[in-house]
Amino acid sequence: MSDWLKKPAWRLGVGILLVAGAVAGLWPDRREPQFEGRNISWWLEEKARDSERYEMSFAFVGQEAAPVLAAALGRKDSRWNSFACVLWQKIPSPIRCHFPAPVLNATRRRAAAFGLLQMKERAAAARPALLAALNDSDARVRELAAAALEELGLGP
Hints:
By secondary structure, the chain is mainly alpha-helical. Helices cover 63% and strands 3% of the residues. It has one domain. It has ten helices and two strands. Helix 8 (105-119) runs parallel beside helix 10 (139-151). The longest helix is centred in the first third of the chain and has 19 residues, at 8-26.
């Protein structure tokens, strides 16, 4: 047997990898609902980029999408994300075309509120997030949240 196989560091490394693999295999799977093989978060990004198939994803997934959209309603923009969006406009288009554009969380919040509005009564689980969205800094998010609450029979 080779000398390197006898070294304790090698055995420790293999042991750590085996334990990590076992933990990863036994870890509870908390996947988001999917439509056409994509997570709801991905469709939220697409709505932010004006995809026409956005509403179809919620019609297919149903009320399982409400918690994901409710979480998106609470996301605020970091300074880094805001900076990246401003900087993106200054990058030459021949370079920009090779990378996805950054999206402000305000745009994602609008998309989430719109998705919850489209879900109508299936968005009942997102009621607390919609109520909190009435105080959002973005006027369009507030409008969409109010309309979604109205669809739930809880007009502001």
